[in-house]
Specification:
Elements: E1 6-7, E2 10-13, E3 16-23, E4 29-36, E5 40-42, E6 48-52, E7 56-65, E8 74-81, H1 93-105, E9 108-112, H2 119-128, E10 134-137, H3 143-155, E11 166-169, E12 172-174, H4 180-191
Parallel strand pairs: 9-10
Antiparallel strand pairs: 1-3, 2-3, 3-7, 4-6, 4-8, 5-7, 9-11, 11-12
């Protein structure tokens, strides 16, 4: 990535400083922003993890300077190019057809919730790899989520980790997904 393609411009207005992510590239980037300060009140004290789409400028955070302070702050700004792919291993042409058909024939369900940090990435991975799926947001509808827990417990002797996202491919349930890498591993297992 060229250092000038994604930057962190700021706009100051009175006691307010607004930080933006400005992407001038034709690629998407994932960013991590953490602001450390004792001189400002922040709109959020948690780190910000966002996907910045190509050729866009997105408001990330507004800082409000506290009275009697110097106005100092430090930022940690990390940028990663988005390059998600399942990279299913294919040994020969006959297998290509079977994998492509499996992508169409398997029933894929994804359980998400509003404050899930990796759920947007999991949906993007499925969409980018043209895997049709049904999404259930448990904050809006917990009925289907309760059914999946019941199915899991009746089909295995394992404990169900109450973690989101949960991926179901046909009858296989993957519920210990803590990172994008875990999600990709579950997809590879489900489709191989």
């Amino acid at each position: 990535m060229n250092i000038n393609t994604l930057n962190l411009p700021k706009k100051k207005k009175g006691k307010r400083i607004t930080l933006y992510a400005n992407n001038t590239d034709s690629l998407s980037y994932d960013i991590f922003l953490k602001v450390d300060t004792k001189d400002f009140r922040r709109s959020s004290t948690r780190p910000i993890l966002r996907n910045i789409t190509p050729n866009s400028k997105i408001k990330l955070l507004t800082l409000i300077q506290l009275n009697g302070t110097e106005g100092k702050y430090n930022t940690t700004f990390i940028v990663n190019e988005v390059a998600y792919a399942i990279e299913v291993e294919k040994d020969h042409e006959g297998l290509d057809f079977k994998i492509d058909e499996a992508l169409k024939d398997k029933e894929v369900t994804l359980y998400t919730k509003n404050d899930c940090l990796i759920c947007p990435d999991t949906k993007r991975i499925l969409n980018n790899n043209k895997i049709a799926f049904t999404e259930y947001n448990i904050d809006k509808d917990s009925t289907n989520y309760l059914k999946i827990i019941k199915d899991f417990k009746s089909n295995t002797n394992k404990n169900f980790d109450n973690k989101i996202p949960v991926l179901k491919v046909d009858t296989a349930i993957y519920n210990n997904i803590e990172s994008v890498e875990d999600f990709i591993t579950a997809l590879r297992e489900a489709f191989n």
